[in-house]
Amino acid sequence: MVKKKEKLFLIAILITVSLFFIIEKRFLPGITSRLSPYKSFELLGNVIGLVKKNYVEEVNPGKTMKGALKGLTDSLDILSSYLDKENAEKYSKQKNAALKDTGIIISQKLGTLPLVIGVIENSPAEKQGIEIGDTLSALDNRSTSMMSPAEVKLYLKDIDDKPVKLRILRGFGIREVSIERKLLFDRPFSFSEVKKTSGILKINYLYHPCVEMIQKDLPSTLKSSKKALILDLRNCHEGGIDEALKLINLFLKADNVGTIEKKQGEGIILSSLEDAFLGKLPLAIWVNQATIGAAEVVAAVLQEIRQTKIIGIHTIGLAAKQELFPLEDGSALLLTTGIFRLRSGKKLWEKGVKPDIQLDLDNQSHSSYLKKTLDILPHM
Fold this sequence. Notes:
By secondary structure, the protein is of the alpha+beta class. The protein is built from 10 helices and 17 strands. The longest helix has 25 residues, at about 1-25.
């Protein structure tokens, strides 16, 4: 029985190592090409031998395999993650906005706890007093120290509206609070009229059919308006690059708006080729630290090519293409397979979008954004 467990353990390790080399070959910079494969396997053999000989308990092969997969993928970057079966299903469902959520937006670097960088307006989290700068140390008494950012985000979501218990670190204090989950948005966008402007178009998330609905429902008078439209991308942290391109195409027609840079510098040119529905409309953009991913692509492209003025907070720089690779047991690997570059060559990854007019982190009220925007309208 012991020999059988040892064999399963060895198989688990070998599968994990093989998976690493497959991932490295397809997606990562040439890490292993700089190392001797014989030295790598020799080191691995020594580790296996030490574990077998000295670890105090019998090794659970299934647990070891899951841990190895998780450790490998979670350490690649902030977006990549190993997802168990439940989380893989949640990830697939989030694109249709069917999951209920708390309204907390987090960021997390390797080896740190999740940090709250955004709170959705009128969400359960806002009503319970969650603040930007709070740290989440536990979810339903489960420590977040070993959870990837993707796992934390998906844990906060659920098909049901059952509450989640959060342990929050704020300053030197610890607070525990139960927050319900609910459907945050009826639609992917909202539109509101504001004096001296053409209105505010707020994007909640960038999944299909967001842009299709915008084209259908926005007032037709906008096309001929001389007043600036405000594109509000604050707290827009979910979406795909395909939908981002469609949103860009509402305001800009171009055969090259940037590239997705794959492994070893291979670039895929991105275009917005349809006639721009609002191509002549003056435009201003609002961003904050929770403007992430696809929304960063929209802001950066319009800033560079259309010279659109951006007001707000420097974004964190997570503009990348992600792909989900299902595994046989229902779990999946969520991998970053490309990063976005503007057509000028500027990379957004880990650099973000720098606003033309910056606001203070502690002064992000709607009125502050609007005042700064109205101040520059005469010069647009």
